[in-house]
Amino acid sequence: MKILNIIGARPQFIKVGIVNKSLEYDSRFTSVIVHTGQHYDENMSKIFFDELEIAKPDYNLGIGSASHGKQTAAMLSGIEDILLKEKPDWVIVYGDTNSTIAGSLAASKLHIRIAHVEAGLRSFNRKMPEEINRIATDHISDLLFAPTTTAMNLLEKEGLQEKSFFSGDVMYDSILYFEKLAEQKADLKNITDLLEFYLATIHRQENTDNPQKLQKIFTAFSQLDYPVLLPLHPRTKKMLTSITYNDNIKIIDPVSYLEMILLLKNCKKVLTDSGGLQKEAYFMKKQCITLRDETEWTETLENNWNFIVGTDVNLITEKVSSKRIEQQNNYFGNGNSVTKILDNIYNY
Ligand code: UD1
To answer: Considering all CA atoms of the chain, what is the largest pairwise distance in Å, rounded to the nearest integer?
Structure first.
């Protein structure tokens, strides 16, 4: 059975990294990887392929940055050509980026079966480009793999239960696999001299493209009781010229996956607007302060493991000093999501 994986952005490299490990060793499948080129900087793309030992993509469309319409249209056209040539039995798309919607749309028009990994996530905020990508992808895919039971319930509410399966979260499988390797291969001293720090990331369009919100986040970070280590996404870096902040914020270049695991292990808490990092903080038992007005990962809010604070300066500083209750549940599965996904696809 030929599986064609479509990826393009950083979180998708992590997801395909763990899925393709199984695909490569499973004689039931042959695997093709298509990289749209949505992320193209060395430290946003190549480093993940090297570190996660993902085979070089069979195709790289090299599409890069553009407006949503232009970027998605170029992907759609490029992916269609590849699908016509490769004639896969299944396409797997991951998450909620423009590469996800382009891949699923191209495949659906050619009547190629589509599996969506990380289905059923909803923020109920249709201003987020990712929300549109998720809803559309779920409705045109043939198999939906929900990472949590909350996601399963949301798919059911949209009438999609018959094609939905609770698989658990492939990012949990991934962190279990790579955690030890991070200790062996990455070196904290190469990333930072700080011994005690908060770990932060900011890249959401709703924060980066709104200077008032971005300023509030930087004002809050400037006031925190420990330094804030901020591996900065290129999107955010471009917006910093009009922002003021002090040296409590330590900006570094984007880090690799293994380096991020090491930073998670060693930080005091996490402040982020990323979806993936909210979960990874939970997996690594670090409290998270989410710089958004909603989260798709509502399970993480239980027992104060995560707080939704938006960009309110007082709320950010207040929640950073909150305590949590130790208890966590295995909402994200048992680390065998990839096996469940591949078995379901094979037996479809
Ligand atoms: C995309 C996803 C988002 C995901 C994120 C992970 C969409 C709509 N958004 O957001 O869901 O959480 O990836 O990082 O698909 N840029 C570079 N170099 C790069 C990549 C990006 O300079 O290698 C800059 C460009 O200025 C670009 C901007 O970042 O315009 C935004 O990149 P884009 O891929 O459009 O969206 P992300 O913000 O990365």
So the answer is: 56
Lookup: tokens for 69: 């319409």
Q: Which residues pair with 166 in a beta bridge?
A: 146
Per DSSP, 9 falls in state S
Q: Residue 314: how many CB atoms within 10 A of its CB?
A: 11
- Kindly give the confidence (pLDDT) of every residue in the chain, 348 residues in length, as a single tens digit, with 9 standing for 90 and above: 999 999 999 999 999 999 999 999 999 999 999 999 999 999 999 999 999 999 999 999 999 999 999 999 999 999 999 999 999 999 999 999 999 999 999 999 999 999 999 999 999 999 999 999 999 999 999 999 999 999 999 999 999 999 999 999 999 999 999 999 999 999 999 999 999 999 999 999 999 999 999 999 999 999 999 999 999 999 999 999 999 999 999 999 999 999 999 999 999 999 999 999 999 999 999 999 999 999 999 999 999 999 999 999 999 999 999 999 999 999 999 999 999 999 999 999
Q: Ligand 1, atom 28: nearest CA belongs to which residue? A: 235
Q: Is 41 in the pocket of ligand 1 (CB under 6 A)?
A: yes
Flag whether the pTM goes above 0.70.
yes
Q: Please report where in the chains the tokens 């996956």 appear, as a residue.
A: 257
What is the rounded (10 degree) CA torsion for 220, 245, 253, 97?
50
Show the beta-strand stretches assigned E in 213-313. 228-231, 249-252, 270-272, 288-290, 306-308
Contact present, 43 and 260 (Cβ < 8 Å): no
Q: Which of 13, 65, 295 to mutate to test the pocket of ligand 1 (most atoms within 8 A of CB)?
A: 65
Taking each helix axis from N to C terminus, what angle separates 170-185 and 257-266, rounded to the nearest 10 degrees?
80
Q: If you ran DSSP here, which 8-state letter would residue 23 be given?
A: H
